[in-house]
Amino acid sequence: MNSISNQRFEGKVCVITGGTCGIGLALAERVISEGASVVVCSVGKDIKEQVENLRNKRVNKTAQRVEGLFVDVTSKQDRQNLVNLVEKEFGRIDVLFVNAGIAFQMYGQLNMPESTFDQLFAVNVKGAFYTIKDCLELLKKGKNPNILVTSSYSVPMPNKSVGVYGMTKAAMSNMVVWLAQELEPDNIRVNGINPGMVNTNMTPVKLRNITQKIPRIISEPHNVASIAAMITSDDGSFINGESHVIESKVLENYKI
Questions:
Q1: Residue 1: its pLDDT value, please?
Q2: 234: Cβ–Cβ under 8 A, 6 or more apart, which residues?
C-alpha cells in the first residue's frame, strides 16, 4: 500500500480560477505547500500582491513557480489569455480547479432583476463549462489530469434565500457527472465539491459571527482545501464523477 505523502503535488501544474480569495486562495496555498506550481486567476485587483504572497509560500523556490492573470471567465478572450499563458509557461495542466463563482440576491428570488439572473448563469455555469472546454487540450497533456468543480451545498439542500444561485450550482454538479463520462476515454477525472457555509467574504457577517459560539458550525477555507487536495491528488485516483458535500450537520439544528 502506498504511503500518503505531504508532497502529493510535487512537479504538478495546477490552474485555479477565482484563486486569489476565499476557497480559491486556500486551494492555491494548499497545493503549493505540497509542491505544486500554480497559475491563479481572478477578477480581483490584488492579483499581483497575492501572487507575491503565494510565491513566498513555496517549499521549493527553485522548482515551483506561481503565475497570476486577470481572467473574467465569461470572456472568451480572457480565457484564451489564460490558455496562452499556461501553454507558454508550462505546456500542460495537471489539475484544473474550476472555482470562480458569484452569489447574489440572498432573499426573495422572484424579485431578482433579469440582468442578475443572467450574470449568475454566465459566471457560474457558462464560465465553468467554457473554462474546461478551453483548457481541455492542456489537460490531455497533463500527468494523471483531473478537474475539480466548486459547487455548493445548496444543490442537495435547496434554500429559498439562494434559489437561483443554487440552480446554477445544480447545473454544475450535473455537469460533473456527464463530463466525467465524456472524458473517461482521455483518462481525465472530473469531480466536484459542495461546500456548505464557509468563512469567507461571500458568507453573511451574521453567520460568520456564530463560529465564535459553536465550533465546526462553519468551515474555514483551508478545511475545504484539504478535502479538495485529497480528491485531486493521486490519493483520490479512484474518485470520478462524484460531488462531495462538505458541511457540518450541526448547522441544520442551529436556528439562525
A1: 38
A2: 2, 8, 144
To the query of whether residue 165 is one of the catalytic residues in this protein, the response is yes
CA 132 – CA 176 distance, rounded (Å): 11
The answer to whether residue 81 is domain-embedded is yes
Cα dist. 200→64, 135, 169, 208 in Å?
27, 27, 18, 8
Total domains, the chain: 1
Q: Using CA atoms, how far apart are residues 115 and 2, in angstroms rounded to an integer?
A: 51
Please identify every stretch of the chain with a pLDDT value under 50, giving residue numbers as ranges.
Answer: 1-4, 255-256
Q: Considering the entire predicted model, what is its pTM? A: 0.91
101 located within any domain: yes
Which residue out of 130, 153, 165, 254 is catalytically annotated? 165
Question: Whole domain around residue 148: which residue ranges?
Answer: 13-245
**CATH at 67:** 3.40.50.720
| 8 within domain boundaries | no
Percentage of the chain modeled with pLDDT above 70: 88
